C-alpha cells in the first residue's frame, strides 16, 4: 500500500459553472449500504471475530462506507462522472454485503455445532476467518480507491482531506535476477572443465554482487553521506560473505560432479526468482486491471463532462490534456483481449503494461494535489448522457499503446511536471500584485525547479534522445547522471508541495475564473476590409464600420439588441456613433431617437432621456415617459459608458425601460472591452474599432492637410514617418494635419515635429489609459505575445504569417494539450490572439492584402516608447540586454538576441566586430548567449559580408556551447548566410527562416533538426530537399516555386530487419504538416503513397510541370494530385498550376470538392478539362482566381451560386467566350472583381440589383470590350474603377462615373 499525501491547502482556481440537475432522489443502493453497515456492526457487537487486526479492519471499512454514503447523498447533480462513480460504489457495497452475509452465516453454523464437530471443523473455521480477513483487506482497498477517485475527478464537488491510500501496485524489480540468469548461462557455456579457482570465485561473486547492489540501492537516494558510507561498508561485507559461501558450495559440489554441472546449481535461485516474479505479476493482473478499468471509465466520464465552453485556468487546461492523453493511451491498451494463452512475452508484458499504466494514472492524480488543481469545478454546462468510451483502432499507429519505461519514462514524467509549472506561472501572473509574500517565494522556488527541468531536458535531448539503441546503451554514465538529476528534481517537487501545505498558501483566483460566463457576445466585423476610401467619404476609415453597424441596427430582430462600439480614446467612437445616428435611413427606421452622454447618478441619465422625448414635460414623471417609450421602436445612443456606469446601465435595462420586443436598439460607446462582455447575451453585439492602417492613415492626413501645392517626395517620406509614429490613432493624425497645415512646406520644419517634446507629451497623454489597462486588464499570455513584437524594428511591418509561427515556436501560445485528438491547432490559437490584440488597439495593422486580410502589423510607436522598453522585465521575467540595453549579463538572462545593426547593442561587436577579439572569447560568449532562445537578424545589406559574419558568429558561439536552447533562427533577407555544421547541435530548433536569403543548397545538417516545425525556403535557389525531410516533424514548409524545389522520394527503411533494436519509429513523421507551399511536381515526384498520405494540410501550393515528352506519365501524375486534393478535408487555401515541357499552361485535372468543405481561397492556372467543374466548387469559397482556364461557358453563370465569394479574378484566357452576364441578386458578397486579358470578351451585361456589394473593379487588356456595362451605374457601392490598356472609347465612357457614382474613383492607365 502506498500512502496518498495529505490533500491540504490548494492553489485552486474555482470555476463557477452552472449545471443542470435531474433532481435529488436518493440512490437505489442507499438501503444496501445501510444493510452492509448493520451487518458489520453485528460482526463487531457479537464478537464473531476475536482477532484485533480483523476488528480494526472491519471498523475502518464500516466508517469508510458511511463516508461513501455521505458523499453520495450530498451529490447535487448527476453528471456522467458521478453516475460512473455511483455504479462503482454500488458494486463495492454489493460485494461487501455478500462477504459479510456469508461470514455471518458461516459463524452461525459454527456456533450451532457440538464440541466434537467443532474440533473436526477447526481448520475450516480458521481458513474461513483468514479468508474473511483477506477479503476485508481487499474491500478496504477498493473503498479507499473509490474515495481517492472521487477527490481526483471532483465527484461531489468537494476537495477531500484525510489519510487515504491508493491501489496496491506490485513493484517487483526482476532485472538483477534476469541478468544473473544470463551471466550464469554464459559462464556455463564458455567455461572449460579445467577452470581455475579465481575464475570460479569470480563466477560466484558477480551474481551475488549484482543482486545485493541493486536491492540495497533502493530507497537510499535521500540518505546523508554518513549513512550512505555505513551502508556501503555493510554491503561490501555482505557481498564478500555471500560470495565466499557461494564459492564454497561450488567447490563442494564440483568434488562429486563436473564443474559445468556444478554451475547449473547457480541458476536455480535466480531462475526461481524469475518464475516467482512472473507468477506474482500474473496474479496481480486481475486486481490491477479492474482498478485501471474503473479509473479509465471515470476519466472518460470526466472528459465528457469537460467542454470547451467552460472557462479554465491554465493549470486546469494542461491537467485535463494530460488526463486525456493517459485515457487514450489506456483505452488503446485495454482494447486488446486479456492474453490467456499463446505468446509468453505477451502474457508477461501485458500485466507489466497494466501496472505501468496504473502508476501513470496515480501520478496524474498526485500532480493535481501538488499544483492545487480543482477538478470539482471542471464541469459541463448541460447534462450529457453517459456513453461508453469509443474503442480505439488497434491497427492505427496513432492510437496503439506505446510502452515507455526506464529513463525515458522519467523524462516523460518531468516534461509533464514542466507543463504544469509553466501553467502555474501563467496563473500566478494573472494575479500580479495580489499574491502574498509566502506565495511569491513558493512560486519563485517552483520557477527555479522549472529551470532545472529545462536544463535536464536539454541535456537529454542533446545527448540521448535520438541515439541508436546500442550507442544509448553504452552511455551508462550519461544516463546515470541524468537519472540522478531527475530524482533530485522529483524530490524537490515533493518538498515544495509539502511546504505549500505547511505554510498555508493563498488560493490563486485568476481573472479567467472571475470573468467566466456561459454566454458570449457576438463580434460585429466586416466580411472584408479593403484598403480603399470613398472619394466623398464624410469620415475617413469608417465606411466599413458604419455599414456593419447599420446592418445590425436595421435588422429584423424584434428583441431589443445592445450594440457596443469599443475602442481606446481617440479612435473615433463618438464620431462613428454620430455618423450612424444622423443617417437618414436610420432616422426613418425608428419612431424615436435619443442621444445622451453617460452621467451619474442613474436618475439624472433617465431624466435626460425623458427630456429629449418630451421637451414640453407633459408627463408627470420621467418614469411615465420611459414606460411609454418602451412600447415604441426606439434608438438610444449613450456615449462614454464607464465601469462606474454599470449600475446606471442595469437600471436602464431591467427597470426603467423594459424590453417589449418592438425592435428597439441601444448603441453604446465605451473604452472598456471587459465592460461590454459583462452583458453577454445572444442579443449583445460588440464592434471593436481598430487602429487605422498606414494607407488609410495617410489618406486621412492628406484629406485634412491644408496646403496649396502637392507634397514633394521628401516631404511624403517624412509625412509617412510621422503617420507611422501616430500609431493609426485618428485623433493624433488629425492633430498632426492641423499642426503641419500651419507650418511651412520645408523638410526641416516637418522633420522637427518628430523631435519636439510636445509630440512625446501628446503621445503619452493619448495612450496613458491604454498603458494602464495593459497591466491591469490584459492577461499575461497576451502580454507576452504583445511584447514579442518589440523584438522587431520600430518601423518594420511584421508579416502575420511570420509572427504566428514564431509565437508557436516560442511556446507563447497556450492551447489544448498536444495529445488531444480534436485539439485546435496552435496556429489558429495564435491567430485568435492576434485578432484580440488588434481589437484591443494594442497592435496596429500596417498593411492589408488586396482582399482586406491583415498582411503586416507592428507595435504602435507609443507603446514601444512608453511600455515595451520599461515592461520587458515584468513580461519576460528577466531583462534582455542584447535587445535594448547594456545590462550586466551576470545579473540577467538573455533570452532573445536581435541584430538591428545598432552599434550600441552588446551583440553588435560579437557579430560584426573583430573576429580575433571578443568573438573568440568562449567564456564571454557563454556568459551572454548560453540561455538564448531566439536569434533574429535584420541585416539586409547587400554583398557576402552579412552572411559570413552571421556564419562565423554562429559557429564560434555553438562551439562555446551557446545557443543550445535555441528555438528560433530567423535569417530572413540575410544574403547567403554561411550556416556552419555545428547548427546540427541545435536540437531544440523549431523555426528556421531562410526566406530571401538566396541560398543555393540546403546544408546536410538539416537532417539532425528533427524538432523543426517551420522551414521557410521561399525565394532561395534551393531545388532539392534531403531525404531526411520525411523524418522531420514539420508543420510548415515553404519552398521556392521559381527554382523547382522538389520533394525527394521516401527512403526505404534500411534497418527493417533490426528495427526492434532501434528507437520506436513513427509511421509518418510529416502527418502534422499544415502548410506545403511552392512544391514543384513532375513525373518523378513521389505523390502516390507518398505525399498523398499527408492529409492534414490546410495550405497547399503546387506547380506541376511536364519535364519529358511522354504526356501519359504526367497525366497520371496530375490525376493522382487531383485524388490527393479531393481527400484534404482541412484544406483552406489551394494554389495549383499546370504547365507543359515548354512552360506554357497545360491541362489541369480536378475532381470532386465534396470533402473540401473548409476551402476558402483557390488559385488555378491551366486548362480545365470541363467547365462544369466550376459548378461543383464548394460554397465556402471566398476568393477565387482563374488563369488560362479556356472556359467556353460564361463563368458568371457557372459561379453564381457561390454566395460567400468576395474576390473573383478572371485572368488571361480564363474565359474565351464573347458575352458575360451578371444576373440580379447574384454574388451578394462580391467585393473585388478583376477581368484581365479576356481577348474574346465583347459584351458585358449587368442586370439591376446585380453585384450589390462590389467595391473594386479592374479591367485590363480586354481589347474587344468597347463599352462598360450600363448596369454598372446602379452599383452604388463601387469605390474604385481601374482601367488599364483599354480602348479609348471605353476610357472616355468611364469618366461619367465620377458624376454618377460620387464615391467612385476612376483610375485610367
UniProtKB/TrEMBL annotation:
Pfam family, one: NB-ARC
Keywords noted in UniProt: Membrane, Nucleotide-binding, Plant defense, Repeat, Signal, Transmembrane, Transmembrane helix
Residues in NB-ARC domain copies: 549-703
A single GO molecular function term of this UniProt record: ADP binding
Entry keyword Flavoprotein: no
Record field: transmembrane: 169-191, 197-214, 235-257
Coiled coil: none
Protein name: Disease resistance RPP13-like protein 2
Organism, scientific name: Cicer arietinum (Chickpea)
The encoding gene: LOC101495647
